[in-house]
């Protein structure tokens, strides 16, 4: 069985769907994004890519969609058909069991909206976004909408006390040697787990921002960032934390964007966060610069997976962002100059306003 077939077969496990459905933040955010924009869905043609059990398709039908093509490659499509039937939307929702790459719509019909919950761990794991972009290019009208319409990946340095701190004193025994070997073993692949906000050691950095309306599949083959961040509190630097946000379209200036976030600061989702663990930890001080290069590249053999690699850099030899949150002399000097410039600008503005006021008084 090839990796693609393995992928679709894995989604026939009902426990996977239970986990996703019971993820309140995930399911409710999609419901809100659809139901709070009923004017966008009313009498429109929608495609749900990778519909699973069909709940997003039902949300679209409830919002007034004229037609929903619910595309699902795995045998879970049979459950989706029953869900559609029990919700009395058989006249609206058509479940198509096929890979979206092979789907042909009647009369080469185009759709107004593409809805999909395609996100994997650290956003791109599983590579389902590729299929969504194929659907976009094949089926979406020129002025059509993507739900969600954009996604961003963030990274921040972190501690991982839930994995390691217990070994300092384990039932009265120091297990430092075991903990060190455990770190070495776990550093070989990313760890999916929950990180507490207080375990972040620095501000998050934007690794990538993906606009689903125009991004090309080839642009997802490799992502990379090189950055320096100042530590915001002393602690043990044990790895990098990755998470993502997805943003849905806004159709009115009075509406706030609806965002599905997997940040440590947001309610927990089944995606949790992805941690790249270091084989060795080190103590860091507040405002100390941490420099690294993080790359994500699509696996050559299994293109639904990515290889993640971190290189620890010397902060003395790489460019720092402006302004930088670290305490190196050059960064402190730049911050001082920027503050002086800002203060001078304010003074000049106040002086100008005083002159104008005086002129108004003189004229009167």
UniProtKB/TrEMBL annotation:
One of its GO terms (biological process) is methylation. It comes from Papilio machaon (Old World swallowtail butterfly). One of its GO terms (molecular function) is protein-arginine omega-N asymmetric methyltransferase activity. Its EC number is 2.1.1.319. Residues 150-309 form the Protein arginine N-methyltransferase domain. GO terms for cellular component: nucleus. It catalyses: L-arginyl-[protein] + S-adenosyl-L-methionine = N(omega)-methyl-L-arginyl-[protein] + S-adenosyl-L-homocysteine + H(+). The keyword RNA-binding does not apply. This is type I protein arginine methyltransferase. Keywords: Methyltransferase, S-adenosyl-L-methionine, Transferase. It comes from the Eukaryota. InterPro entries: Arg_MeTrfase, PRMT_dom, SAM-dependent_MTases_sf.
């Amino acid at each position: 069985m090839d990796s693609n077939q393995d992928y679709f077969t894995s989604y026939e496990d009902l426990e996977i769907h239970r986990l996703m459905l019971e993820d309140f933040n995930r399911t409710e955010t999609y419901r809100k994004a659809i139901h709070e924009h009923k004017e966008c869905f009313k009498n429109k043609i929608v495609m749900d890519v990778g519909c699973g059990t069909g709940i997003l398709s039902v949300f679209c039908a409830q919002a007034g969609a004229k037609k929903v093509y619910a595309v699902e490659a795995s045998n879970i499509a049979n459950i989706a058909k029953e869900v559609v039937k029990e919700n009395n939307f058989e006249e609206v929702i058509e479940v198509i069991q096929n890979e979206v790459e092979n789907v042909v719509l009647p009369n080469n019909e185009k759709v107004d909206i593409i809805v999909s919950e395609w996100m994997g761990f650290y956003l791109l794991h599983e590579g389902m976004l590729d299929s969504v972009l194929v659907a976009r290019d094949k089926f979406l009208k020129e002025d059509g909408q993507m739900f969600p319409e954009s996604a961003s990946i963030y990274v921040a340095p972190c501690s991982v006390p839930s994995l390691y701190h217990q070994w300092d004193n384990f039932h009265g025994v120091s297990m430092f040697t075991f903990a060190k070997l455990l770190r070495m073993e776990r550093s070989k692949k990313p760890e999916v787990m929950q990180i507490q906000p207080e375990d972040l050691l620095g501000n998050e950095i934007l690794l990538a921002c993906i606009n689903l309306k125009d991004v090309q599949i080839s642009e997802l083959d490799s992502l990379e960032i090189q950055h320096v961040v100042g530590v915001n509190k002393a602690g043990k630097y044990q790895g990098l934390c990755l998470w993502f946000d997805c943003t849905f379209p806004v159709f009115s200036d009075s509406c706030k964007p609806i965002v599905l976030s997997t940040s440590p600061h947001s309610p927990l989702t089944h995606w949790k966060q992805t941690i790249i663990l270091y084989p060795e930890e080190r103590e860091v001080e507040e405002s100390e610069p941490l420099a690294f290069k993080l790359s994500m590249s699509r696996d050559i053999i299994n293109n639904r997976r990515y290889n993640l690699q971190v290189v620890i850099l010397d902060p003395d030899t790489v460019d720092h962002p402006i302004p930088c949150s670290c305490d190196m002399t050059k960064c402190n000097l730049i911050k001082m100059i920027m503050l002086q410039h800002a203060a001078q600008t304010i003074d000049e503005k106040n002086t100008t306003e005083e002159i104008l006021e005086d002129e108004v008084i003189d004229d009167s």
